[in-house]
Write a structure and sequence with these properties.
By secondary structure, the protein is mainly α. The protein is built from 15 helices and no strands.
């Protein structure tokens, strides 16, 4: 047993502080870099498969190691920045990613790869909720009383856009630069060092309490609006399931079934999906929350249907169009989810609420990705993708029902 002590509210910074405005963009850069590094291996998986004889199932196990690391980190420490401070969590998170980069550079052995992905996940789990909360507070300090649209756009673009930026850079480096399984990690090691410097410069936004609250693992906080939190969590789960598909087995499917082995193309496809997600978040910024959720649902449903059609027709163009549409839907759904949680959670519980949201989202990465990896051992990939899409359509229908009930209330 442990005593429950409320976390302190963030400090009240100087109104309109220029330092907080600069810090906002520094943290955005660090957030983008951390998320981009997490998807660097995506276009490289076929190279690992060819080099060491990995199966598609083993690729999903490696991917799951990353997602497990994220979940562990979110459960154990994703919320502690509410009382120890944002920078005190972001700095060790980036150091963990530097350790992972060093592991990737040292060896391409499967065991090392699994450990490196696990360590990457541990770092990302610390970054996601902490950087999002930090950006929200820096935005409020720099522009007191201003709408949260800038924060929502930048934070989700750094998160989702970063996930697409990593494969794009890694894919092009692997295609046209020597040592394709090491050069991308070296480039991102340098960027991570710059991200560490950015966090050191940025101002803190949390005042540490005189008495540190008793530690406990992460709880999923639905403070303020339980119905809204449930709808947001379900939307995050379905959106991350789509992202999990494109950061695990999709590059291998394009290289094998669709017969397009280019690493640059693999990175470009993943970038297109996440880039579409980030762009859609910007374009829908002015939409009301309910309409935003509906638009995301429609786009993701349409994308999944086109994606399946492209897989059956073995058409790269249809597969890409479906992926972009599904990415648009997933991005809009995730943006609506983050906005809902930030708007309804109490400031002292904002990090906890966001950590819970990301925890549920990353569970959406693990389950479907592992399920696909297991299924392709006995079924062809096209059939597995069809069943995957069908299950997601059922989940999306559930999100629609939850959103309609919340809107009705």
């Amino acid at each position: 047993m442990s005593l429950s002590v409320s976390a302190p509210a963030p400090a009240a910074p100087v109104v309109g502080s220029r330092r907080h405005g600069t810090g906002f963009w520094l943290i955005a850069f660090a957030f983008l870099t951390a998320m981009a590094f997490s998807t660097v291996p995506t276009p490289l998986y076929p190279l690992y498969m060819a080099r060491d004889g990995f199966s598609t199932f083993m690729v999903t196990v490696v991917f799951a190691a990353y997602a497990v690391g994220v979940v562990i980190s979110l459960l154990l420490a994703g919320h502690v920045s509410d009382w120890v401070g944002r920078r005190r969590v972001l700095l060790p998170a980036l150091l963990l990613e530097l350790v992972a980069a060093a592991l990737f550079l040292v060896s391409t052995d499967l065991t090392v790869l699994l450990v490196a992905r696990l360590v990457t996940g541990l770092g990302v789990g610390l970054v996601t909720a902490t950087a999002t909360a930090h950006l929200a507070e820096l935005h409020a300090a720099h522009r007191p009383g201003a709408p949260a649209q800038r924060f929502e756009m930048v934070s989700t673009a750094a998160n989702i856009g970063g996930l697409g930026f990593g494969p794009l850079v890694a894919g092009f480096l692997a295609q046209w630069v020597g040592a394709p399984l090491r050069t991308p990690y070296l480039v991102f090691a340098v960027l991570l060092l710059l991200a560490l410097a950015a966090v050191l410069i940025a101002p803190e936004t949390v005042t540490r309490p005189e008495v540190t609250p008793a530690y406990r693992p992460q709880r999923i906080s639905a403070d303020g609006d339980p119905a809204g939190y449930l709808a947001a969590a379900a939307a995050a789960f379905t959106g991350f399931s789509v992202f999990g598909l494109f950061t695990s087995v999709a590059p291998g499917f394009v290289a094998g079934t669709l017969h397009h082995p280019s690493r640059a193309l693999a990175g470009l496809i993943v970038f297109a999906v996440f880039g579409a997600a980030a762009s859609a978040q910007t374009l829908t910024a002015a939409l009301p929350a309910g309409l935003k959720m509906t638009a995301g649902l429609v786009a993701e449903v349409a994308g999944l249907l086109v994606l399946v059609a492209g897989a059956h027709a073995q058409s790269l163009a249809l597969f890409l169009i479906g992926g972009v549409l599904a990415g648009v839907g997933a991005g809009v759904l995730f943006k609506a989810a983050v906005g809902t949680v930030v708007a309804t959670a109490a400031p002292a519980k904002r990090g906890e609420a966001l950590a819970g949201l990301f925890l549920i989202g990353y569970l959406g990465l693990i389950g479907p990705a592992l399920g696909i990896g297991v299924a392709v051992r006995s079924l062809d990939t096209t059939t597995v993708l069809t069943w995957f899409a069908g299950l997601l359509l059922v989940l999306l229908a559930g999100v629609g029902v939850l959103n309609r009930r919340r809107s009705g209330r």
